[in-house]
Amino acid sequence: MAYNLLKGKKGIIFGALDERSLGWKTALKCHEEGAQLVLTNAPVALRMGEINKLAEAVNAPVIGADVTNMDDLKNLFEGAMKHFGGGIDFILHSIGMSLNMRKGKSYTEIDYEWNKKTLDISAMSLHRVLRTAWDLDALNEGASVVALTYIAAQRVFPDYNEMADAKALLENVTRSFGYYYGLKKKVRVNTVSQSPTRTTAGSGVKGFDGFITYAEKMSPLGNASADECAGYCATLFSDLTKMVTMQNLFHDGGFSFTGVTEAVIEQMEK
Question: How far apart are CA 148 and CA 100, in angstroms?
C-alpha cells in the first residue's frame, strides 16, 4: 500500500546493486511513494548491468560515481540537480565493502592498506557525500539523509570483521555532520541499523546462514525484511520525521534490546 509520503520529493539512491539489495528495495519504495529519483553506483557495479533494470522500473537516470572521488561526486550532484531542476530532498547511503573480508583476512591480521580502503569506501564516503552536498548547497531545507549500518558497530560479531569498525565510523560521521547540517538547513542525518538481511553483500559474511537464524530467534518480532527496511527509510525521508536527526535507529524486530528469548534457551538446552 502506498501513502504518497514522498510526493513531489526528489532523491539520490546510492548502492542499488541488484534486486536483493536494500538500495534497490528502497528505490522501488520511494518511487511507489511518489518520489523522483537519480540512481548511482560505482563504475565497476554499473558494468554488471543490473541497475539498468531498476532505472527503467523507477524511471530514473543512472549517474556513475566513485564515492572516494570528489570530482565524481560533484558531477553526480550537479547532474542530479540539473535533472530535477532544483535541489535534492533525500539521500540513501547504502554502501559497504571490506577488502580484508574478501581476501579472507581475520580481524587480528588485517592488511592496513586494505583497511584504509574499507574505511574510505564504507564510512568516509558518507562524509564526502555530505561535504559535496554542503559545498554545492545541493540539499533543500529540511532534507533527509539515511545511511545503512549494523549493530556490530556497538557489539562484537567476530565474523563481521573490519566492517564493524567502518560502521562505527559511519555512525559517528552521521552524528557529527548531522549537527552542522541541522544548524545550517535543518537537514536530518540518521543511520538505520537493519536486521541481518539476505543481500548479496550480507550473504558474503562467514557463518551468515547460522547467524540469521539466531537473530530470528532473538528478535520478538523476527528479522526485519529488506522490503520493511525500505518502508522505514521512506518514513525517514518524509515530512513525518522532521525532528529526527543524528540518531542510530534500530530496525531489527527488537534484537538490539533483547537479552535472551525462550526460543534461544530451548535451542541451547537441546
Answer: 20
